[in-house]
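Give me the fold.
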Amino acid sequence: MASPGSRRSRRDAGTRGDSRCAPDEPEKRAGLGRGTWSKFLAVGFVIAIGADPISAKGENPIQLENAKAGSGDWQLTRVRVDKAGYRSPWIEGYCSRQSVAPGEALDIMVSTDPPARFRVEIFRTGFYGGLGARRMMDLGPFEGKAQPIPAPGDLRLRECRWEKTATIQIPPDWPSGVYLGRLTTMPGADDQPYWQSYVIFIVRDSRRADVLFQCSDSTWQAYNRWPADDSLYTDPRGAHARGVAVSFDRPYGRMPQYTGIVNDPLSVGSGEFLCFEQPLSCFLEESGYDVTYCSNSDCLDAAQITRCKVFISVGHDEYWDVRQYRATQAAIEAGVDVLWLCGNSVFAVSPFSDSADGRAKRVITRVGHFAGLTDEEYAKAERTMTKDWKRAGPDEGLIIGARTVMPANGGGDWICAKPGHWIFEGTGMGRGDAIPGLVGWEHHGAPASLPGLEVVAEGTVWSGGVNPVRWTATIFPGPRDNFVFNAATVFWCQGLSMPPGHTLPWSHWSRPHGPDPRVRRMTHNLLRRAIGE
């Protein structure tokens, strides 16, 4: 390990990224003007808003959207969790669908315990001149009540069947994106406090776009401990026991890794989006990329992916249905470029199934794991993987370029191994140069045996702070002059931007430093080649 002043740990002078997503040269930036937004009120019924669809010659929908006025007040201010640390019973809620298209209806379910009046404010997350979100709609006030906590059912499933608070009809001019509903209680007296949490949903579309941003929401739900430590990781048989299920019909509680991999308490009710994914979204929209968003549940068919030039898996994308694997494999074969800006991805086989009332893809069940791990790794990790482990899907390394290795987590520096590669153009990085703390919380290693695969970065993560594990970032060619890049770290997006309120994570006594011009430039290099600029 070299000293802090050595070549491996240096930063180029004057190249630190701005903490509010400010662009670095030669990065392009969408023009940011002033726009208008409207306020809508509702009292528990369907709200339908008519507006002209977004259109403009020469500008993509994301550039047009980010030219509108953002909101300086979209974060949570007063957040309270129960003594166990899993949920916020004072106000919490969930949505009836993971993603919804313009014109479709979305139900919002909210519980307040004790009963309290409350309001809902809907925001679209993005760049918006560095503010991070735009106010889209206000709902309420509503008269809240405590809604029932479901008992565990088969496969330890907790599935809420709450009365709906409101239904919104998604307006035709709402662009694809990740939307937050801020829930706020409304005290009846000045000497009473108010409390807040979020609900989260994705607005999707079917248009052709340059970039498809797949949110890792199946993994958000797998780790969700609501209401009483009820994630896929709390089965008494072991953390990765087979035959356990979770439902999207329940609130997202406190971010499950709040003692380490944080964005707490900002993220209560929002899954893992704010901590592991929003910095990428902010970066893409700041830079003016033509990006569209979807849920894991939307990618069971290759047509969802092949409508775009590049497919991005972001953050912590661990839980996949095998149909997602086949769709991504087919997209690569069709010529789509894939960026795995993530770690520990495509690891647990978790097919979707219907809810109790028949809504599609509202439950995921862990039935086994993809085929990358060796028998020896399973044996060493038996306490975590259990004696009942099973390979239930193909080798994830064949679509990623590397795979999860054991131990699967740790922290370390991201170290350049092939400085002459076009990925590093304009970064100034030499062999052995490091981006401190960028590798974590989980990673990929063990490069796949694929024709033309290159290891572009590699090094050591320290599991538990002291146990060395090798990680590898890779790139390999597809069959139609396309490519597949694997960044090999959950924390890649931490080097891209610092949205308002964002908290840098840390893992195994290691932490990323935030926006880094080298990470930004590498990401631009990848995107621009994929798009064809």
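The chain has ten helices and 24 strands.
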